[in-house]
Predict the structure.
Amino acid sequence: MTQTQSTKTATPTAIYSLTIAPACVLRGRSAIAQAGEAIARFGKRPLIVGGSNSLAVAQPYLQPILKQQQLQSAETAYGKDCSERSLETLREAVQTHQADFIIGVGGGKALDAAKLVAHQCKIPIVTIPTSAATCAAWTALSNIYSEQGAFQYDVTLARCPDLLILDYGLIQTAPQRTLVAGIGDAIAKWYEASVSSGHSEQTLIISAVQQARILRDILFQKSAAALKEPGSETWQEVTDAAVLLAGVIGGIGGAQCRTVAAHAVHNGLTHLLASHGTLHGEKVAYGILVQLRLEEMLQNNQLAATARQQLLKFYAEIGLPQTLDNLGLGDITITELQRAADIACNPNSDIHRLPFKVVPQQLMAAMVSTTAPVGELKIKN
Ligand SMILES: [Zn+2]
């Protein structure tokens, strides 16, 4: 082979950037009270970004250490949603306060807004989740919504947060329902990762899929006991599973291991006003059942049918929604259902990571039959 030929046949190595984990995770009861020095390392003038509720809840935890470290902090509520307009207001607040780092406090949307404004202003970010409803405190990803709460797109961030503080005392003040939702969002990792990447030969992806299986098993085994005894050891383990391990899987697996049909269904549902009373993880949990139903109907997949029955039992035990009716969407019109299905099937949707083609009519059929007995309502390809 001549020199020229070998140059021609060589394929360039693709550069693949990994954002696996926060640089540091501090975790424990009263973790915030002991995090003063770790926080003060990032600067002198933090801007605290959160929901108005979470800012109030977190204040007694944060104020003593801000004072102790002599930090000049300012607070800003992120507004109605993690939207482009909220981000604009937050960037202005960073400028006005001359903030040198951000402390994000709250649930998924508050943390997404805080992470994104830090990314845009190129300053460090500390995340303090106030509930276990999502793994947003961990990930290098922010979801953008419209002012009306409809999902628009996600943004990949340059890195995971510089510091994550998981304070069990603070998380325990959140309504129980948020942990239930967090369990729904976390358990989706297995169903989405295994269907999109279960046959991958890539070392890190194989590892992410296996960890998603472990995460599912931990949740099956410990969720009911955790919810009966908030604050207990088991409750802390389940909180770790929802906030931390779910984040690890997204980090190691990258975009391929993140979302498939369960999240696509969630995204479609956010475009219906009536869906706004339910939490992200609740819609995702329902979305898993829809995804399994699609695998049953379009592939005649018996394993999916069994998995769906297992999940229905689990959902009944811990209070996750099984149907549109459980999500408060029992009265939507066919037009609205079609709209959600159309959005979930748009050409850029993650639903197309399924190993078969899905059209809105098939998705609608799956969406209304999540509790169907096994073996019924099969549609041939
Ligand atoms: Zn999610």
Notes: Residues 25 and 164 are 5 Å apart (CA to CA). The chain has a mean pLDDT of 93. The pocket of zinc ion is lined by residues 134, 185, 263, 280, 284 (CB under 6 Å). The longest strand covers residues 101-106.
